[in-house]
Amino acid sequence: MLWTILIILLILMLVGALPRWGHSTNWGYGPSGILGVILVIVVILLLMGRL
What we know:
Helix content: 55-70%
Structural class: mainly alpha
Shape: elongated
Number of strands: 0
Distance between the termini: 12 Å
């Protein structure tokens, strides 16, 4: 249950960090790229059964 909430929060943070929103236009793709990498790592670990 906790991991499902974690993945949902990571996805929401990834969408919120996209540079198309007004508050993040000057950020570039850095925050969404970092959150995307974290999300991919968590999903891979879940699929491998390590979490």
